[in-house]
Amino acid sequence: MVELIEGRGARAHIPTLRTGKVQRSVNARLYRQRNLIEQRFNKLKHFRRIATRFEKLARNCLAPALLASTRLWTKLYDSTT
Question: How far is it, in rounded angstroms, from Cα 35 to Cα 14?
Fold first, then answer.
């Protein structure tokens, strides 16, 4: 997988297992950013319309993604009192 990613001109930030034969160095800051993005995508997948991809055109898929993102964003600032 790493070779495929690097073959496309990107840098892979996939840590190896401690028991792995080949050890790759991973930039901690970039790995943290990658992890945050991955968490956001997982939260978006909880919305059924996005997870099942009902939309056939890419432009139509953007609206549910924006609505779900807005809903998640407002949840952060929602008052609990």
Answer: 10
Residue 67 domain-assigned (yes or no): yes
Structure tokens of 66?
A: 């924006």
**Beta carbons of 2 and 10 less than 8 angstroms apart:** no
Asked if 17 and 35 touch (Cβ cutoff 8 Å), the reply is: no
Q: What is the extent of the structural domain holding 59?
A: 2-76
10 has pLDDT over 80: yes
Q: Is the pLDDT of residue 63 over 70?
A: yes
pLDDT beyond 70 at 7: yes
- Find where tokens 């034969």 sit: 21
- Integer-rounded Cα radius of gyration of the chain: 17
Q: How far apart are CA 46 and CA 32, in angstroms?
A: 22
Residue 81 maps to a domain? no
